Structures are given as structure tokens and as C-alpha cells.
Amino acid sequence: MHPAILKTMVCPLTKGPLKFDKDHNELISEQAKLAFPIENGIPIMLPEKARKLD
Predict the structure, then answer these.
(1) What's the CA gap between 39 and 54, in Å, rounded?
(2) Cβ distance 50 to 36 under 8 Å?
(3) 35 phi and psi, to 5 degrees?
(4) Where on the phi/psi map is residue 27: left (φ > 0), alpha (ψ -120 to 50), or beta?
(5) Is the pTM of this model over 0.70?
(6) How far is CA 13 from the centre of its chain?
(7) pLDDT digit string (tens) for 3-52?
(8) Could you tell me which of 5, 11, 40, 45 has the fewest CB atoms within 10 Å of its CB?
(9) Under 8 Å between Cβ of 11 and 32
(10) What sign results for the dihedral spanned by CA atoms 33, 45, 18, 50?
(11) What is each CA distance from 53 to 5, 8, 36, 48, in whole angstroms?
(12) Inter-residue contact 27 to 21 (CB < 8 Å)
């Protein structure tokens, strides 16, 4: 994920910042405790597609 693009993206639920997890190819919202997948280079920012974090 290009850093300039990541700076413009926010969590769809909290509007808070996201972190890129290179190992899992996901965008992490620590506030919402969700991991949004990236498929074929496209972030899937749908809460129902996100993985819940512990």
C-alpha cells in the first residue's frame, strides 16, 4: 500500500487512522478492532468483510 494513499484513508466506522499490516495484507483499525482485507491491491472497506481483532 502506497504511504500517500494510506494517509488519505480512514476507518469507515470510526473515521480514525488505519495501519497497513504487510504480513497479512490488511488495513488495521485499532479503534474499531477490525482488519480490512486488501484483494488484488484494492482495500475492501466493508465492515461485514473485515476480520475482528482480539
Answers:
(1) 22
(2) yes
(3) -120, 115
(4) beta
(5) yes
(6) 11
(7) 888 889 999 999 999 999 999 999 999 999 999 999 999 999 999 999 99
(8) 40
(9) yes
(10) positive
(11) 23, 23, 10, 13
(12) yes
> Rounded to whole angstroms, how far apart are CA atoms 54 and 44?
20
Note every long-range contact of 11-14, with CB atoms under 8 Å and residues 24 or more positions apart, other chains counting.
12/45, 12/46, 12/47, 13/47
Cα 52 to Cα 28: distance, rounded to the nearest angstrom: 10
The amino acid present at 43, given as its one-letter code, is P
DSSP 1-54: --HHHHHH---TTT----EEETTTTEEEETTTTEEEEEETTEE---GGGSEEP-
